[in-house]
Amino acid sequence: LLPFNKANAGIPVGTWRAHPAYNDATFSLKAFGYICVLSEGAIYFYDPFDNGLYTIDKTGGLGDTDIAAMGYCNSERAVLLVYSNGNIDILYDDFTIFNFTDLKNNSTGNVMVNELKIIENNAYISTNIGLVIFDIKLKEIKNTYRFDSPVYTSVILNDSLICGTEDGMYIGNMSYNLLDRNNWNIFSN
């Protein structure tokens, strides 16, 4: 008879192990010498040098589940993870994680992330509640621009910020106070 091997008995009672799905990759980027892959709301890292596959999930330090978007900030050497509920994680190159919950906890309505763009230290997060500008270095929300409909995309063109919504394109000159709705022009055609 073989002795009972505790290692083969599974995880101990009272502990957790996550089983996220990794079979439908939707987005990838290069970070920290790895290929970081977003797959059905979870992430994994592929190491092209040793063909290793490394996963990270909520039990490994992430702040939530269901990652809606991710982007890489070169200047901070960090991957920004934005969850479908507005929770934000900053994953640094030493694999430490900073969790930012202010957007999740202080939003009224459905946050739902539609797009994430990172320009320098700023993340432009297009959501159903508006455009949220998050400063990755300072770990704070710089501004939130709310419109009458969800923001699906945003772009900076010269000195203007352009937000694409169901109602049309909102264009605001960044030298003006864009928190004042009168400083935005809308083109609905």
How confident overall, as mean pLDDT?
86
Total count of strands: 16
- What percent of the residues sit in helical stretches (DSSP H or I)? under 10%
Main-sheet strand order equals 1-2-3-4
Biggest sheet: strands, sense, closure? Answer: 4 strands, antiparallel
N to C succession of SSEs: EEEEEEEEHEEEEEEEE
Rg from alpha-carbon coordinates: 20 Å
Q: CA-to-CA gap between the ends?
A: 78 Å
Global morphology: elongated
Q: Name the poorly predicted regions.
A: 1-9
Indicate the multimeric state: single chain
Number of helices: 1
**DSSP strand (E) fraction?**
over 45%
* Helix and strand composition category: mainly beta
Short description:
The chain has 189 residues and is mainly beta. It is 2% helix and 49% strand.
What does this structure look like?
The chain is built from one helix and 16 strands. By secondary structure, it is mainly β. Mean pLDDT is 86; it is low at 1-9. It is 2% helix and 49% strand. It has one helix at 102-105; strands at residues 25-31, 34-39, 42-47, 52-56, 67-73, 78-83, 88-92, 97-100, 113-119, 122-127, 130-135, 140-145, 151-157, 160-165, 169-173, 184-187. The protein is elongated, with a radius of gyration of 20 Å.
Core attributes:
elongated, four-stranded antiparallel beta sheet, 16 strands, 189 residues, disordered N terminus, mainly beta
Describe how the helices and strands are arranged.
Blueprint: E1 25-31, E2 34-39, E3 42-47, E4 52-56, E5 67-73, E6 78-83, E7 88-92, E8 97-100, H1 102-105, E9 113-119, E10 122-127, E11 130-135, E12 140-145, E13 151-157, E14 160-165, E15 169-173, E16 184-187
Antiparallel strand pairs: 1-2, 2-3, 3-4, 5-6, 6-7, 7-8, 9-10, 10-11, 11-12, 13-14, 14-15, 15-16
